[in-house]
């Protein structure tokens, strides 16, 4: 595990797992939100592709966390990773974590986001709709295509996550 991509809906556990893996494996962690949300409304997709591609090409080891399932970078991240981790947590669990995160970071910048991106708005219907409309089935199908050549881990609950972390310690 030298090139790891971690996917999943907002608040599913991607950042926490990425940071733990980064410590255990001594591999740098790249948060896509820090790259994409540098500008209000996000940077242009072409620039985002260039920056993600540069990270992957310039580093022998990386953990890239962040979902962005509709980004042009998704196929690049999957193709260049040797390990793909997908969080497929139940909706109630994700909504609970989104609510907890809102209160924890209200009016603060989360450590995995760009410098100016404060959590200002209350838990919104936008986040709820994002969780409801997250293309998890499409991602599962796409990831299955990589099973022959890459390590694929699907995490459905905290027990799966704990078990996975225990397997690499």
What are the defining features of this structure?
169 residues; single chain; globular; alpha/beta; five-stranded parallel β-sheet; 8 helices
What does this structure look like?
It is a single chain. The chain has 169 residues and is of the alpha/beta class. The chain contains eight helices and five strands. It has helices spanning 14-25, 32-36, 45-58, 73-80, 91-105, 125-133, 136-144, 158-168; strands at 3-8, 29-31, 62-65, 83-87, 151-155. The protein has a five-stranded parallel beta sheet, with helices on both faces. Helix 3 packs parallel to helix 4 and helix 5 (91-105) packs antiparallel against helix 6. The longest helix has 15 residues, at 91-105. The model has no long low-confidence stretch (mean pLDDT 87).
Shape: globular
Radius of gyration based on Cα positions: 15 Å
Global structural class: alpha/beta
Strand content: 5-15%
DSSP, total strands: 5
Distance between the termini: 13 Å
Give me the number of helical elements.
8
The averaged pLDDT comes out at: 87
Low-confidence stretches: none
Which sequence of strands runs across the widest sheet? 2-3-1-4-5
């Amino acid at each position: 595990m030298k090139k790891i991509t971690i996917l999943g809906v907002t608040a599913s556990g991607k950042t926490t797992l990425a940071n733990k893996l980064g410590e255990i494996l001594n591999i740098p962690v790249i948060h896509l939100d820090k790259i994409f949300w540098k500008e209000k409304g996000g940077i242009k997709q072409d620039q985002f592709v260039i920056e993600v591609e540069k990270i992957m090409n310039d580093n022998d080891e990386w953990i890239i966390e962040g979902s962005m399932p509709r980004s042009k970078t998704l196929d690049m991240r999957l193709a260049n990773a040797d390990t793909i981790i997908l969080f497929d947590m139940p909706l109630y669990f994700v909504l609970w974590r989104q609510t907890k995160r809102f209160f924890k970071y209200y009016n603060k910048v989360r450590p995995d986001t760009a410098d100016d991106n404060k959590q200002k708005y209350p838990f919104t219907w936008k986040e709820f709709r994002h969780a409801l409309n997250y293309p998890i089935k499409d991602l599962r199908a796409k990831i299955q295509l990589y099973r022959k050549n890459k390590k694929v881990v699907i995490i459905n609950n905290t027990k799966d996550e704990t078990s996975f972390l225990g397997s690499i310690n």
